[in-house]
Amino acid sequence: MRIGIIGAGQMARALGNGWTAAGHEVRCGKRGEIRETAAFGDVVLLAVPVSALTEVLAQADFGHKTLIDCTNAFEPDEGTMVLSEDAVAERIARLAPNAHVVKAFNLCAAEVWTSPERVFEGQRLVVPLCGDDADALGRVGQLVRDLKAEPARAGGLHRARYLEAMSVLVVGLWFTGTDARAALPPLAAAFAVAD
């Protein structure tokens, strides 16, 4: 697959290196290279600060491409973080109306993707995906598997706002020294039985 990555930060490098190692053609583009990078990719990853999204999306035609949003709208708040925007993925979909936006890769820091470890406490790392297009979800799901993780469809793009809220809660807990995984029992003990 040809993957265009817009951004040059840690997340862009971590995911790009993983996909290159898996055999994909990857091109990273910074400011001034956005149009070419978008044209290159069958799939395009947005790995830029949320504050830059409007400018980035105005610089290229994303057509009917799969557009992965891994961003988080974090801002500091009393020693932890809050969201500066509630629905980033939905804004991206409005600004690139023909693209097939998939929210993914926003729950783990870049360091997770540079590590070879994908199994924790006996469970493979899961990457939730939110999007409306089945083909786009399939492409992103394959990219998740190529990084040795497991994709999990978490609903349509309107549910991406919950992934974004989850990210600020989980990352905020980690920053304060709390293991966010300890707040949730394993599936076998979750007692999720329909009433």
In words, what does this structure look like?
This protein has seven helices and eleven strands. A hairpin with a 2-residue loop joins β5 and β6 (80-83). With 195 residues, the chain is α/β, with parallel strands linked by helices. The strands form three sheets. It has a seven-stranded mixed sheet with strand order 2-1-3-4-7-10-11, with helices on both faces. A two-stranded antiparallel sheet has the order 5-6. The chain has a two-stranded antiparallel sheet with strand order 8-9. The chain has helices at residues 10-21, 34-40, 53-58, 88-95, 110-114, 134-146, 160-175, and strands spanning 2-6, 25-29, 43-46, 66-69, 74-77, 80-83, 100-103, 119-120, 123-124, 126-131, 150-153. It is globular, with a radius of gyration of 16 Å.
Low-pLDDT residue spans: none
Beta-strand percent range: 15-25%
Q: Could you estimate the helical fraction of the residues in percent?
A: 25-40%
Question: Strand order across the biggest sheet?
Answer: 2-1-3-4-7-10-11
Q: Radius of gyration over alpha carbons?
A: 16 Å
Mean pLDDT: 91
Rough outline: globular
Give the termini separation: 44 Å
Largest beta-sheet details: 7 strands, mixed
- The SSE order reads EHEHEHEEEHEHEEEHEH
For the secondary structure, the number of strands is 11
> In terms of structural class, how would the helical and strand content be classed?
alpha/beta
Number of helices: 7
Task: Set down the secondary structure blueprint.
Blueprint: E1 2-6, H1 10-21, E2 25-29, H2 34-40, E3 43-46, H3 53-58, E4 66-69, E5 74-77, E6 80-83, H4 88-95, E7 100-103, H5 110-114, E8 119-120, E9 123-124, E10 126-131, H6 134-146, E11 150-153, H7 160-175
Parallel strand pairs: 1-2, 1-3, 3-4, 4-7, 10-11
Antiparallel strand pairs: 5-6, 7-10, 8-9
